[in-house]
Structures are given as C-alpha cells and as structure tokens.
Write a structure and sequence with these properties.
The structure is a single chain. The protein is α+β, with helices and mostly antiparallel strands and about 140 residues long. The chain has a six-stranded mixed beta sheet with strand order 2-5-4-3-1-6. It binds a DNA duplex (12 and 12 nucleotides) through loops.
Length: about 140
DNA sequence: GCCAACGTTGGC
DNA sequence: GCCAACGTTGGC
C-alpha cells in the first residue's frame, strides 16, 4: 500500500471482457464508459493507481488487480468527445476471489461506494477497503 | 430471465 | 425546463 496512490474498482462482465482476457492482452483501453459520474472517476485516475477487477453478473467477485498505465484521454469510441478512457494493465490474480456477498458481510466494507451506486462501473476504493479486500483474498499485494 | 434502480432522451 | 418513456446495468 502506498499513500501517494489512489485505489479504484472497475466492473466488467466476464463474458464480455474478463480478468483473464486482460492478462492475455497485457493491457487494454478501458473505454465505453458512458456515465458522467464514472467519467469523473476515470479523469481522477493517475499512473500507478491500483484497481480491483470485479466480475459482474456471473462471478460477482473481485478476481484480480490492475494498474493504471495511461491516464485519461478522450474515449476514441465516443463521438461526442464527452467521455474518457484510461489504459489498464494486469496486476495480480487473487489467490481466492472475494465475493460480493463476503464484501457485504464485512462491516469494514459497509461504506463502499459500489454498494450505494451499484450500477456505476468505476468507483473509488479507500486504502483501508483495499487492504481489507486483499486480506480477504489471501493475497499479498 | 426478471426487474429495480437510475441515467438519458425528447415531446411539450 | 418538466417529466414520462425508454434503455442499460447488474443483483438476484
């Protein structure tokens, strides 16, 4: 953990783009986000920020981590120019996935923004939440 | 597959 | 500029 760094959580449906796909690709442009609040978070991402990779709809678990390897730029897939993308590269695969259920049951995670705005595909994570989730996964990061 | 949540669009 | 209709997301 590094105090100069911010932490985030991104959601992806594994049938569309899974953590395994990111590992195979080595890096990916995180584009297609069309929500104003999520775009604010994307703009706040800095090089080296760390990201929890969550599988929505199917696994309902955090399965790995990723690193911001390019800061926000105009989303090439957005004709209006209003939205931005970042580049993510794979970090670590978690030893054990951390399920949504387990996160909801952990009082230390009760204030996570992903619970309050469940449809946001990009949300901030506090350093403490990051530490707790990584501990739950039995991973050393 | 259903549907609640909620952001966006467009007619007025 | 309101708000009903519509579309999308994602937990269940």
């Amino acid at each position: 953990m590094d105090a100069t760094r911010s932490y985030w959580l991104v959601k992806s449906e594994p049938s569309k783009y899974s953590f395994g796909d990111l590992v195979l690709d080595g890096r990916t442009i995180w584009d297609g986000v069309r929500n104003a609040q999520a775009a604010i978070y994307l703009r706040a991402m800095r090089l080296g920020d760390e990201v929890l990779y969550y599988h929505s709809r199917e696994d309902l678990s955090v399965v790995g981590t990723a690193i911001v390897t390019r800061e926000s730029f105009t989303d090439p897939s957005d004709a209006t120019g209003r939205f931005v993308a970042v580049e993510l590269s794979p970090g670590e695969s978690l030893n054990q996935p951390v399920s949504l259920r387990a996160m909801k049951e952990n009082p230390a995670l009760a204030d996570m923004i992903m619970f309050r705005q469940f449809r946001l595909s990009v949300t901030p994570v506090t350093a403490e939440e990051w530490r707790v989730i990584l501990a739950m996964s039995n991973s050393e990061v």
